[in-house]
């Protein structure tokens, strides 16, 4: 398993962490659209998480983003970061609301599936390495016994 796969896996875990923080903010503020529009603490919390998700998405390898673009629109995810970073005073709360209600849960679910797949692959690779090592040790032992 390459270094870039491990790096992508770590980035996906961080994206999940920020998605979870959005969930926590939604729970804290009762996931209320009017509250999002009128409460700067709620809005700032959500905006910071989206900013970080966009930053993390930008750090994923190009190969990974290209291979999964049919499942997640990475350019749009990265675009959220730019909207939050450059147009903060003028964020469209309706778009922000729709993003946290629709897009973030889909992104989180995707990341969770990818991590589970990564862990399964990693586990099977370790099993294969263990089997290879065990076979080698058995052969060495048999050779010493002869």
What number of structural domains do the residues give?
1
- Uncertain segments of ≥5 residues (pLDDT<50)? none
Structural class: mainly alpha
Largest sheet: none
Overall geometry comes to: elongated
Fraction of residues in β-strands: under 5%
Arithmetic mean pLDDT:
85
Helix content: over 70%
N-end to C-end Cα span? 37 Å
Which series of helices and strands comes N to C? HHHHHH
* Rg, Å, rounded: 21 Å
Number of helices: 6
Structural description of this entry:
The chain is mainly α and 146 residues long. The longest helix has 53 residues, at 93-145. It has one domain (3-119). The chain is built from six helices and no strands. The relative contact order is 0.13. Helix 1 (3-28) crosses helix 6 (93-145). The two termini are 37 Å apart.
Show the helix and strand layout.
Blueprint: H1 3-28, H2 33-38, H3 40-59, H4 62-68, H5 74-86, H6 93-145
Question: What attributes does this structure have?
Answer:
mainly alpha, 6 helices, 146 residues
């Amino acid at each position: 398993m390459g270094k870039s796969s491990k790096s992508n896996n770590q980035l996906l875990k961080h994206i999940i962490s920020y998605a979870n923080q959005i969930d926590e903010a939604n729970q804290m503020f009762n996931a209320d659209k009017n509250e999002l529009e009128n409460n700067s603490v709620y809005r700032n919390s959500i905006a910071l998480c989206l900013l970080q998700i966009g930053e993390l998405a930008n750090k994923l390898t190009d190969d990974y983003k290209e291979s999964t673009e049919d499942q997640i629109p990475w350019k749009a995810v990265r675009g959220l970061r730019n909207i939050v970073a450059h147009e903060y005073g003028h964020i469209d709360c309706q778009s922000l609301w729709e993003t946290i209600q629709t897009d973030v849960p889909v992104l989180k679910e995707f990341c969770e599936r990818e991590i589970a797949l990564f862990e399964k692959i990693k586990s099977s690779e370790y099993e294969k390495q263990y089997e290879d090592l065990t076979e080698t040790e058995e052969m060495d032992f048999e050779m010493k016994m002869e």
